[in-house]
Amino acid sequence: MVNIVFDPGLDEAMSFLTESFSGRRLVVCFGLFSVEYLGRSSSSLGFGERLLVVKGDGSVLVHRGTGYEPVNWQPSGCRLKCMMVDDRMVLLSERRRPKEFLKMVFQKVYVMFSASPVDDARFMMGPSEETFYDILYSNPNLIEKGLKLVSRQKALSSGVPDFTGVDSAGNYVYVEVKRCVAGVDAVRQLDRYIRSQPGPLRGILLAPSLTNSAKALLVKKGYTFRRLDLKLLSGLVTMQPYEETLDRHLGSSAASK
Amino acid sequence: MVNIVFDPGLDEAMSFLTESFSGRRLVVCFGLFSVEYLGRSSSSLGFGERLLVVKGDGSVLVHRGTGYEPVNWQPSGCRLKCMMVDDRMVLLSERRRPKEFLKMVFQKVYVMFSASPVDDARFMMGPSEETFYDILYSNPNLIEKGLKLVSRQKALSSGVPDFTGVDSAGNYVYVEVKRCVAGVDAVRQLDRYIRSQPGPLRGILLAPSLTNSAKALLVKKGYTFRRLDLKLLSGLVTMQPYEETLDRHLGSSAASK
DNA sequence: GCGCTTAGCCGCTCA
DNA sequence: TGAGCGGTTAAGCGC
Hints:
Trna Endonuclease, Chain: A, domain 1, alpha+beta, Protein Yojf, Chain: A, elongated
């Protein structure tokens, strides 16, 4: 649920902020204001048009029209207060330890909105799962020398092995890939795929490592374990897909020369 | 002039962005999107509601609902492109050196606006490191009684001690200054300077305090620690705008109590 | 809580 | 262009 106010009076802006703060909402505000900071260091910035972002956890960011870094800010955990002083809206943010203050005096608010972002995604360092499979698919030697892959699973559906291929001896192969330590369930999955097929098939489990029980089951079933070198793989990520995407849409638009 | 779009379709959002980028405008967008980064490192973040800020100079910031830091970003100077791919809006940002990409796939845009902020104010920092050096250089007694300084480092360059001088006993002295707690690296720095010289030199580390490890190394190397009294030093700073700022801050925080 | 280490650190200055 | 270094560094992890 996004609340938006366009060209509000300062009184209206103040109640909007007060309400948003008490609801711990994310607030974005573009307006004409001055900023002063006092704490470990100090700074002052006269009136100008800027972007203010206040997050639900009490982080504050003041951004000017250029540059990556906020001109003023406070990390999460700040207490915010909003008041009218001499027909100006004053926003005061207080950090407890170390004791620091940020003070913004608003002369005008052009637009502001608030929201409570729903965001459950996990931030993962390293290549995405899809990129990961792309690399393996184009570099089957990373799985096993002489292996040729003939198909890969579409999307992230189930009931299908990650890769199918033919090994150097001409055997048909099913490959199951895990990005972390593989457990018995990974071996069972591979086994299920293979037993669902009529002909004889080799099974390869590719993972950084195996649990003991998984290893036992793997040996019993006669499948092969191949170690996946995550570092090596990460190093092989290329920018080609990005560049191709850009090339395909040449002449769209550019923000800088 | 601020342009605002509320709940646009992705096609509409795309033309809005394209236009904003070509006009080098500041764009703020709250929507549901995924982010992938590839460059010096790589990362991926699935779909979620986030805030995207693109500045006119080609800086890009992706903020989640909490925390001071953007989850993904690119510094100024990036080239941006926007396109529709399979009914999704894709925003691609390219940094030249080092080569890096940021890719956002939008499923939904809740609200977005653009503006060309007018902001001529000068950002003024309070007592900076340089100011501190100025004061110390004119008041060597704050470092050590009878000390005479003969040179100071130019600007904030490297490979040079902060001050060189002669102490009351006639020994040549190198002084390394830290405004905050000095760690081992500060001692190492001092040591590097001194060992780079042929003759015998006293080393003085001036800082508000020392970490234990720094103290150990200092003693081992036979250098001297001098306490820097920040309060005292701050008292010697005279800076009209700064004092005004301070007064105003004290005024508001007193009023809010 | 404090102290220490890391970071896609950023941004600056100088060789 | 690369190296060194400061920063309102922030943030995470150990104690």
